[in-house]
Amino acid sequence: MGVSGSGKSTVGRLLAQRLAVPFLEADDVHPAANRAKMAGGHPLDDEDRRPWLSSIADWIRDELDAGRGGVVACSALKHEYRRLFLGAGAGVWFLYLELDQGMADRRVAGRADHFMPARLVASQYATLEPLRPDEPGLTVDAMTDPQTIVDQAVRAVRETG
Questions:
Q1: Total number of domains in the chain
Q2: Is residue 143 part of a domain?
Q3: How many Cβ atoms sit within 10 Å of the Cβ of residue 42?
Q4: Burial class (CB within 10 angstroms; exposed 0-12, middle 13-18, buried 19+) of 94
Q5: Is residue 1 part of a domain?
Q6: 112 lies in which domain range?
Q7: Residue 57 domain-assigned (yes or no)
Q8: 79 domain residue, yes or no
Q9: Dist CA 19 CA 37 (whole Å)
Q10: Lowest mean pLDDT among 83-92, 105-114, 119-128
Protein backbone atom coordinates (compact mmCIF):
# COMPACT_ATOMS: atom_id res chain seq x y z
CA MET A 1 0.00 0.00 0.00
CA GLY A 2 1.04 3.59 -0.52
CA VAL A 3 0.72 6.57 -2.79
CA SER A 4 1.46 6.56 -6.50
CA GLY A 5 5.16 6.30 -7.18
CA SER A 6 5.98 4.49 -3.94
CA GLY A 7 6.99 1.28 -5.73
CA LYS A 8 3.92 -0.85 -5.04
CA SER A 9 3.96 -2.56 -8.43
CA THR A 10 7.68 -3.26 -8.43
CA VAL A 11 7.77 -4.55 -4.86
CA GLY A 12 4.46 -6.39 -5.25
CA ARG A 13 5.63 -8.33 -8.30
CA LEU A 14 8.91 -9.25 -6.60
CA LEU A 15 7.11 -10.32 -3.43
CA ALA A 16 4.59 -12.44 -5.37
CA GLN A 17 7.45 -14.12 -7.24
CA ARG A 18 9.30 -14.81 -3.98
CA LEU A 19 6.19 -16.28 -2.35
CA ALA A 20 5.09 -18.07 -5.55
CA VAL A 21 1.57 -16.62 -5.34
CA PRO A 22 -0.64 -14.73 -7.82
CA PHE A 23 -0.19 -10.97 -8.22
CA LEU A 24 -2.93 -8.39 -8.84
CA GLU A 25 -2.09 -4.92 -10.10
CA ALA A 26 -5.05 -2.96 -8.71
CA ASP A 27 -4.61 -0.23 -11.33
CA ASP A 28 -5.62 -2.83 -13.92
CA VAL A 29 -9.08 -3.28 -12.38
CA HIS A 30 -10.05 0.39 -12.15
CA PRO A 31 -13.32 1.01 -13.99
CA ALA A 32 -12.87 3.01 -17.20
CA ALA A 33 -14.69 5.97 -15.63
CA ASN A 34 -12.11 6.11 -12.82
CA ARG A 35 -9.22 6.03 -15.26
CA ALA A 36 -10.79 8.80 -17.33
CA LYS A 37 -11.47 10.92 -14.26
CA MET A 38 -7.87 10.65 -13.06
CA ALA A 39 -6.45 11.17 -16.54
CA GLY A 40 -8.49 14.37 -16.64
CA GLY A 41 -6.76 15.57 -13.49
CA HIS A 42 -9.61 14.92 -11.06
CA PRO A 43 -9.02 12.90 -7.88
CA LEU A 44 -11.25 9.97 -7.05
CA ASP A 45 -13.63 10.14 -4.11
CA ASP A 46 -14.91 7.32 -1.93
CA GLU A 47 -17.91 6.77 -4.21
CA ASP A 48 -15.60 6.35 -7.21
CA ARG A 49 -13.38 3.94 -5.32
CA ARG A 50 -16.16 1.73 -3.90
CA PRO A 51 -16.65 -0.66 -6.88
CA TRP A 52 -12.90 -0.81 -7.46
CA LEU A 53 -12.19 -1.70 -3.83
CA SER A 54 -15.00 -4.28 -3.85
CA SER A 55 -13.51 -6.02 -6.89
CA ILE A 56 -10.12 -6.15 -5.17
CA ALA A 57 -11.69 -7.56 -1.99
CA ASP A 58 -13.45 -10.19 -4.12
CA TRP A 59 -10.11 -11.18 -5.70
CA ILE A 60 -8.51 -11.47 -2.26
CA ARG A 61 -11.42 -13.60 -1.01
CA ASP A 62 -11.25 -15.87 -4.07
CA GLU A 63 -7.49 -16.39 -3.67
CA LEU A 64 -7.78 -17.12 0.04
CA ASP A 65 -10.73 -19.47 -0.50
CA ALA A 66 -8.67 -21.34 -3.10
CA GLY A 67 -5.83 -21.68 -0.59
CA ARG A 68 -3.38 -19.74 -2.74
CA GLY A 69 -3.04 -16.35 -1.12
CA GLY A 70 -1.72 -13.54 -3.26
CA VAL A 71 -0.17 -10.10 -3.44
CA VAL A 72 -2.07 -6.97 -4.44
CA ALA A 73 -0.43 -3.68 -5.42
CA CYS A 74 -3.05 -1.18 -4.26
CA SER A 75 -2.92 2.29 -2.73
CA ALA A 76 -5.31 1.31 0.12
CA LEU A 77 -5.02 4.88 1.34
CA LYS A 78 -7.64 4.81 4.10
CA HIS A 79 -8.20 2.59 7.11
CA GLU A 80 -11.78 1.90 5.96
CA TYR A 81 -10.46 0.55 2.63
CA ARG A 82 -8.03 -1.73 4.42
CA ARG A 83 -10.81 -2.89 6.75
CA LEU A 84 -12.74 -4.01 3.64
CA PHE A 85 -9.73 -6.10 2.59
CA LEU A 86 -9.33 -7.53 6.10
CA GLY A 87 -12.95 -8.66 5.88
CA ALA A 88 -12.08 -10.77 2.84
CA GLY A 89 -10.49 -13.44 5.02
CA ALA A 90 -7.85 -14.38 7.55
CA GLY A 91 -4.23 -13.71 6.73
CA VAL A 92 -4.56 -10.31 5.02
CA TRP A 93 -1.42 -8.30 5.76
CA PHE A 94 -0.26 -4.86 4.57
CA LEU A 95 3.12 -3.59 3.43
CA TYR A 96 3.10 0.21 3.56
CA LEU A 97 5.70 1.79 1.28
CA GLU A 98 6.22 5.17 2.92
CA LEU A 99 7.52 7.92 0.63
CA ASP A 100 7.79 11.69 0.98
CA GLN A 101 5.60 13.74 -1.32
CA GLY A 102 8.44 15.42 -3.20
CA MET A 103 9.88 12.08 -4.28
CA ALA A 104 6.43 10.75 -5.19
CA ASP A 105 5.86 13.86 -7.33
CA ARG A 106 9.16 13.31 -9.15
CA ARG A 107 8.59 9.58 -9.69
CA VAL A 108 5.06 10.01 -11.03
CA ALA A 109 6.12 12.92 -13.27
CA GLY A 110 8.77 10.64 -14.79
CA ARG A 111 6.32 7.88 -15.72
CA ALA A 112 5.31 7.19 -19.26
CA ASP A 113 1.99 5.62 -20.27
CA HIS A 114 0.21 5.86 -16.91
CA PHE A 115 -3.25 7.34 -16.45
CA MET A 116 -2.49 9.17 -13.19
CA PRO A 117 -0.97 12.62 -13.67
CA ALA A 118 1.60 13.94 -11.19
CA ARG A 119 -0.70 16.77 -10.13
CA LEU A 120 -2.93 14.22 -8.35
CA VAL A 121 -0.21 13.04 -5.97
CA ALA A 122 -1.10 15.82 -3.51
CA SER A 123 -4.70 14.54 -3.35
CA GLN A 124 -3.42 11.10 -2.39
CA TYR A 125 -1.42 12.57 0.48
CA ALA A 126 -4.52 14.49 1.60
CA THR A 127 -6.43 11.18 1.70
CA LEU A 128 -3.62 8.99 3.10
CA GLU A 129 -4.09 7.39 6.51
CA PRO A 130 -0.79 5.62 7.26
CA LEU A 131 -0.85 2.06 8.53
CA ARG A 132 -1.95 2.01 12.16
CA PRO A 133 -0.43 -0.10 14.93
CA ASP A 134 -3.64 -2.16 15.16
CA GLU A 135 -3.49 -3.08 11.45
CA PRO A 136 -1.50 -6.19 10.49
CA GLY A 137 1.53 -5.22 8.48
CA LEU A 138 4.83 -3.42 8.19
CA THR A 139 5.84 0.13 7.27
CA VAL A 140 9.05 0.47 5.25
CA ASP A 141 10.95 3.33 3.64
CA ALA A 142 10.04 3.22 -0.06
CA MET A 143 13.52 4.54 -0.93
CA THR A 144 14.99 1.22 0.21
CA ASP A 145 16.11 -1.21 -2.50
CA PRO A 146 13.03 -3.23 -3.61
CA GLN A 147 14.74 -6.59 -3.01
CA THR A 148 15.59 -5.50 0.55
CA ILE A 149 11.97 -4.49 1.11
CA VAL A 150 10.86 -7.93 -0.09
CA ASP A 151 13.32 -9.56 2.33
CA GLN A 152 11.94 -7.44 5.20
CA ALA A 153 8.35 -8.27 4.26
CA VAL A 154 8.98 -12.02 4.01
CA ARG A 155 10.70 -11.99 7.42
CA ALA A 156 7.85 -10.01 8.98
CA VAL A 157 5.15 -12.24 7.49
CA ARG A 158 6.93 -15.36 8.76
CA GLU A 159 7.34 -13.85 12.23
CA THR A 160 3.62 -13.05 12.46
CA GLY A 161 2.63 -16.50 11.25
A1: 1
A2: yes
A3: 14
A4: buried
A5: no
A6: 8-160
A7: yes
A8: yes
A9: 35
A10: 105-114
